[in-house]
Amino acid sequence: MTTAGTGALLRFMLRRERRGLPWWVVGAGFLVFYQSLGSQSIYGTPERLARFRETIGGNAAMVAFSGPPQLLETIGGEVVFEIFAYLSVVVALMNMFLVGRHTRSDEETGRAELIRSAAVGRHAPLAAALALAGLANLLVALVVFVAAAGTGLPVGGSMLLGAATAAVGVAFAALTAVAVQVFENPRAVYGTVGIAIGTAFMLRAAGDAGDGTLSWLSPIGWGQRTFPYAGDRWWPLLLPLAAAALLVAVAVALLDRRDFGAGLLRTRPGRASASPALASPLALAWRLQRGSLIGWAAGLVLFGLALGSFGESVEQYITDNPEVANFFPGGAADIVNSYLALCVVFGALIAAAYGVAATLRARGEETSGRAEPVLATPTSRAGWLGSHLSVALAGSALVLAVGGFGVGLAYGLAVSDPGQIPRLTAIALAYIPAVWLVVSIAALAFGWVPRAAAAVAWVAVGYCAVVVLFADSFDLPDWFGKASPFAHTPEAPLESVTAVPLLAIAAVVVALLAGGFAGFRRRDIG
Amino acid sequence: MENAISVAGLHKSFGATRALDGLDLTVAQGEVHGFLGPNGSGKTTTIRVLLGLLRADAGTVRLLGGDPWGDAVALHRRLAYVPGDVTLWPGVTGGEVIDLMGRLRGGLNRQRRDQLLERFDLDPRKKARTYSKGNRQKVALVAGLASDAELLLLDEPTSGLDPLMESVFQQCVQELRTEGRTILLSSHILAEVEALCDRVSIIRLGRTVETGTLGDLRHLTRTSISVETTQPITGIDGLPGVHDVVLNRTHARFDVDTQHLDQVVRHLSGLGVRSLTSTPPTLEEMFLRHYGDEAGREAAA
Q1: Which of A282, B87, B227, B244 has the most CB atoms around its CB within 10 Å?
Q2: Chain B residues with CB inside 8 Å of A526's CB?
Q3: Which residues does chain B have within 8 Å of residue A369's beta carbon, measured at their own beta carbons?
Q4: What pLDDT digit, counting tens, does each position of B178-188 carry?
């Protein structure tokens, strides 16, 4: 191993991460904090927990999207049951981006070349990136421990929960270390590791819902099977650590066999001339954004299927756990429709997040300098921005629709009613004005305050999410939610959809979009 | 005939930074105009104003008879632009970028495109992420040179090209010049400017310090003289416009301001000239003199 310079590189990486990394760590802590408070208020007594255990133990869908029911022995275990799989996905993504960004992305952009030309060993960037991931995982372990123990859960189990979370992260950091040796393109790295994370989730879902065998093939399953607060066994953590050691050895061996900047798989040559369709700014925007749109849409179908599959059992679940009913807008009376309405609004929030990400691609094009040669052709500014916004608006409507389709398909299969598919798709589409309003805020910010556009747009998404998720359960004041377009969209199927509020939101959308275009027409590019 | 570009008193600030401070630039139709200046002197900012990407704070800017800010789209049909720092879409091939840019500009001469690809030895099937800096530059060059645009704005177009490609580029520009196209060539490579440009403008700190043909500019600067005479050389130091004299009895080397050359030669002829070489200033010397002076003055301040 030639690791000279690792320490200096690690310090430099920490500096580069000082703005991004804290959010991941805080986010992980928040998930545990929020789940712990929520679970303790809903299932805080042994009787309630026992009732929940009976309902859920036999509900394969609920188990598939949570964890092994053995965890439901204690309230702490219940928290782990509900949150650990999702916490693992977040931490795995954090590790994937940390390792990928500081190895493959740096090599692709040529930054690593400058570094490697100094007295820096061949293995140093990888070693430093893995050390960075290791430090980040330690931080996550600490924050998860504090969040769990700080909300009153037992200290021993909280330590194990923190350690298990970090161990899952370490395994995915090591997996990313292998992937960055194989692919030249960071997006291929993220795609592959992302699929691996999804597969790990699916394996443990199938295992937990079945006889548990498949869960032992998944790092997330290993973490869950430490059973924090419900037996506290540490030995399964040897599995992710051993896997990580093995993967790092593989990564180092591959690193020694490849050239700098190259992957083991070479990128294939592409088209020598553009397809006839690639002839307009819209075609370019579509070409640049189609991959991520397909990814978001596929994710939302799966999300919709997952949520929709609970639809039938939710009635029984609420009868057994009346406390939970408060979380649903329609209360216990109309519980299935209430649940479906909530599923759709979740999907709409994700569609809004997609729309913002797609709109901000325009800003990315501008700051990277790629917008400049396009705007130096007879492409008008309005035409260029309109192209990216068209993809954002149409794409977010598509994401919204396929989410509703997924909910409808899964619920329709459960209740043997194909009519649920068009019904829930249509319900989802009622959120188009609300989603577009968030997109148009991003567009307005892009036109007038380009440097702050990302912050403004994501704050708008975050605000809508807080209103939807917490307004009822946290007793936020009434006025707080009034500005959210989601609050003004009729909650179908609980309420009937009427045109007036939707048209009112649409009018605001048109005004904001027009404002965004006006701002972009009169400002400097770059 | 109207000038292709006429800029007068152009000002542009970014916050507290003054990028352009009363810049003047005139480019006649059909000429190749060199645009020289050190890094950060405002060349790229000027070109961005000409493209209507930046809005001028003050001054008049006319491009092909139109207003670059208000008539951007119409004017862009008639021009092609090659940026100095080329960033491309990582997953799109070079060939696709060239075709796209051509189509956005309203049509592409396929034959010329293929011919340019061959001359610049560029593989169009590679994804942009795998191109080197030089190859990214070639993509932008082929896209720009393949157009039928009447005006080309080239912002340091040969940075990153090897000498072989540099000469291909010079041939291409010569061909465009014979076709009567107008080219604004911002460059650091003085040999390139000397070889290609009819007129040059030198800018510094956002202001034009010199403009004219290379001949005009030479006239404003010094000529180096090396002379050997039969009689010992005397009285040279006292003549107006003579600098940096190195005297060795009958042999002298010195610089003379070009407008005083005549007087110096008359003086020397009285001393019996045996040999005399006179070297006109290179563009590089003029360039260094303009920036060198300023650097010295700034250091003193």
Answers
A1: B227
A2: 48, 53-54
A3: 83, 85, 87
A4: 999 999 999 87
